[in-house]
Amino acid sequence: MLEKEFHLKYILNVMGCRPLPYWLGTFIFDYIAYLITVIIFYILVIENEVKFLKNYLNTLTLILAVFGADLIVYTYLCGYLFKKSNSAFKSFPIINFFVSYSIPWILTNLFEDSDVINNTIQIIMFFSSPFYVLDRALTSVNSDFSLTKTLF
User: What burial class does residue 93 get, using C-beta atoms within 10 Å of its C-beta: 0-12 exposed, 13-18 middle, 19+ buried?
Assistant: First the structure.
């Protein structure tokens, strides 16, 4: 987003940096920053002995690692919707919550009796919403695991 406002991509291109190394380097940096938070989460769960997460920690870590890559690419692609970073900071959370998560979740629950419509919505959302995919992944892990059995 900021690279458009300050013409960073153009300046780097003039200096000899091609788009592939630029985007690859940016992605790797963003992904490492994301993985640091996942590692901190992993350490805190182990240190605090969170029983209801400990059994599924490896699966949860894998889901979060894949979600991070998906989220970063999704964010880069959505960056083309905005001209200014200020407007993106204001409206991107709303777009993520309503358009990319809530509305598809409501539609799949509304049309759960119709397999064709439900499957079509799910296929579209699997390719366009990392939050919907995260919800489905965590739901599938949660189907085997009852939080109330562990806590009480």
Answer: exposed
